[in-house]
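step 3/5: co-fold with 3-methyl-2-oxobutanoic acid
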Amino acid sequence: MSTIKKQELKKVTTHQLQEMKKRGEKIAMLTAYDYSMAKIIDGAGIDIILVGDSASNVMAGNTTTLPITLDQMIYHATSVVKAVNRALVVVDIPFGYYQGSSGEALRSSIRIMKESGGHAVKMEGGAEIKDSVLRILSAGVPVMGHLGLTPQSIYKFGTYSVRAKEETEANKLIEDALLLEECGCFGLVLEKIPATLAKRVAEKLSIPVIGIGAGPDVDGQVLVMQDMLGVNKEFKPRFLRRYADLHSVVTGAVAKYIEDVKAKDFPSEEEKY
Ligand code: KIV
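step 4/5: write tokens
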């Protein structure tokens, strides 16, 4: 694409996301971890691409998001950024790279922005990460919050079940959401909480609230792309809608390829030099 054509494309900004919320226009967000898939979903018109630390599960086969490193996140984000012309690219700061101190959080976010070219960072937590959020924002890096089920704390929760069903936890979540907005976060992800609570938070906040397993009454939705494309047959939480059955499509294509190779049907006369 020429430079002029690239400039003509209206890029999604944090300001535009705010405007979308005001207009009541829903925001569509998906994860991507590599160049090829990011190119497809950006071309399809996705608003936000999240280089999520779910890459730890989806790309590396880990059972949690904890093992992924900052270097690995930067590798994924760099590949995604190269493919993207329009979407806002948000990059997760992985576990262990912001909890220690606000200085460490700042250094991690600066590495992400400098080395990958991503547009914003996302962090899990509320009041406990306030200093880090403020320090990162003071350096001019946009921050997205993440509350509810926060997979980096899985060993504290013990399960991936719905969070904030009890009043105390729900009230703490509302307080944290308001705090993150007050700090200056441009958006907030709410994961796996009751739909009524998510609705209350989205109504209270002026920044966009993006839900995953948080019901319809928020400002947008996010899914892990491989989940919504049906790559993994086993993962089927209630909140997941499958838009394709890639597991069957890929299995069928590979089976046919194997059959063709074994039968000496591939390559044909036309497919050789
Ligand atoms: O890492 C991730 O994919 C996420 C989404 C589930 C929001 O944080």
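step 5/5: annotate
The two ends are 31 Å apart (CA to CA).
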